[in-house]
Amino acid sequence: MAEKRDLIEMFRKMALLKMNDEKLRSTIKSGRLSMPYYSSRGQEVIPAAVSVCLRKEDYICTIYRGIHDSLAKGAPLKQVWAELAGRIDGTCKGKGGPMHITHPASGVMITTGIVGSTMPIANGLAWASQLSGDGRVTIAYFGDGASNIGAFHEALNLASLWKLPVVFVCSNNGYAEHTKYSSGTAIDRISKRAESYSMPGVTVDGNDPLLMHAAAREAIERAREGGGPTLIEAITFRFYGHVFGDDDSYMSPGERAAHMEKDPYPIYRNWLLANNHATENELAAIETGIAAELEEALQFALASPYPDAAEIYRDVFQHEVEAA
Amino acid sequence: MSSEKLNMLEAINLALHDAMEADPKVLLLGEDVADEEGGGVIGVTKGLANKFGAQRVRSTPIAEQAIMGAAIGASMVGYKPVPEIMLMNFTTVAMDMIVNHAAKLRFMSGGQTNVPITIRTMTGAGMGNGGQHSDFLEAWFAHTAGLKVVIPSTPADAYGLLLSCIEDPDPCIFVETLPMYWTKGDAPERGRRIPLGQANVVRAGKDVTVITYGRQVHDAMAVARKLESEGVSVEVLDLRTVAPLDTAAILRSVSKTRSAIVLHEATKKFGPGAEISSIIHEALFSELKAPVKRIGSKFSPVPFSKHLEEAFLPGKAELEAAIRELASK
Fold first, then answer.
1. N or C: which end of chain A has fewer CB within 10 A?
2. Which of A103, A120, A322 sits opposite B65 (nearest CB)?
3. Residue in B75, B108, B113 nearest the CB of A95
4. Fold match between B5-186 and B200-328?
5. B231 in contact with A at a CB cutoff of 8 Å?
6. Which of B133, B218, B264, B307 does the annotation list as catalytic?
7. Where does the Transketolase-like pyrimidine-binding domain lie (chain B) (predicted)?
8. Residue B143 known to be catalytic
9. What is the predicted ipTM?
10. What's domain B5-186's superfamily in CATH?
11. Domain ranges of chain B
């Protein structure tokens, strides 16, 4: 089982991700921020558990529903909020936005809006680590829908052939946009696809921090020790639809409510208390601290200026060639 | 310049060799590129795996997205991969990686990451390879902010331009004209880089400017030589890079001759010639003797049948007629 330090750190990350999502949704609702927002509320366990098994210098590649992944890896809250607000102090000077958070200093190498494209690029990062022997591991996060695009299959094949230090982490939340899993995926378990590429594949309850932590730790250790890639399918559920504002008409009645009743956050919180891993005061202090950090991040974001129009021509190339 | 002759294939191989020798971060990957698989389907990378090792020259599965993704990821953390996409038509299979990722990661990250890859690819009609192995698609890439597109016309240029691409901090697409691989030219001066974005006046003239690149440079030169005896003076401008475009060189030349023809193997419709022609008209409309002419391939998939394939390509006769018409104005 995870050590106590990891248990508390997982909680701290889950609290950050859950409260960040709540703060973002309320801020968007209030009209203070406007963005396409792909909530990952309900999926906190997966990045929290994976991240506590990673080193700071390890890499992640994530997707548009990836703010949980970036914050869990250590992307700085204030800069991330400024990015969401499209401001110059954002991680990407406001030029990436919610679907393109990047922060290499924390190992967040790419956030992509193209379903299925994290895997091929994660391979390249892992290849670089293999060549330089730097011991880094790369995580490719993606959703269940992404396992049906060709890039997934190409990337798993190459990673296995080259024994790359990469872990493919699929958050299977039951829906690819509005299409339910069984209507879009011709196999009952995505992890079975690992066998086609001669790599270990495991399906795990992605809402159980202990099981998720164990699966992530084993895969990450294997990758770091030269044992090659692993495919982890983490079963979870997203509470708030594909994009912020959509209804749940494509779900069976009561499905969302039933899952929300099994919210992994309070369950884990109660488990920590019941097993004497933490006191109520300790957990409450973590939550209070995060609430203050989030308010500070919001104020920082709103106070930051918008980028100058000249930014349009900056960062297209290293040296600007032509302002056409 | 050495009196030695090299063909295009040897010059490109030499550039890859010299780049790999100078910088251990330069990597090659692609289908069949390692020596065990023959050093490339045409042999462009022959000998490099044997010299630099299987770690740095890796044959890949036939999986263009995987090839491009591996190149992009490694390039983001300090390597300089040179992925080969065997034929330019196959870049379509990796278009997401090239257009959505390689081209945009620097911008979308606010300059935190960059993608210093050089995509080598080959194409060109005339080999009977038909509709899916022969297209010039440079307009697609030149239209995407963040990509540089290079199409050399001689072995020495190919060498110098490829070195510049590999060292460039941004993604470059280096297009090799398949039917030109075995054409000999002057050997390059070892180590000499040719800057990207700078056109070359390969022939000075005063009556008409022909703006072109790649194989068509040689067609333009042949026609120019022929017309010289009739007193028509043709300037031939080899762009060398389609993106970034050397607008200054184009306008400088056309200001002098006051008439221009854009010639390329890409199909004429929506081709690079449209952009170049428009740039000239916007800047020099009142000085032009006549509207800029565009000559490109026919708007059709590349045909297989020999006589159709020849008819598809922009011909020297078409160029000659266009020059005569402009010179008479």
1. N
2. A120
3. B108
4. yes
5. no
6. B133
7. 6-183
8. no
9. 0.96
10. Thiamin diphosphate (ThDP)-binding fold, Pyr/PP domains (3.40.50.970)
11. 5-186, 200-328
Instruction: Pull the structure tokens for residue A34.
Output: 């406007």
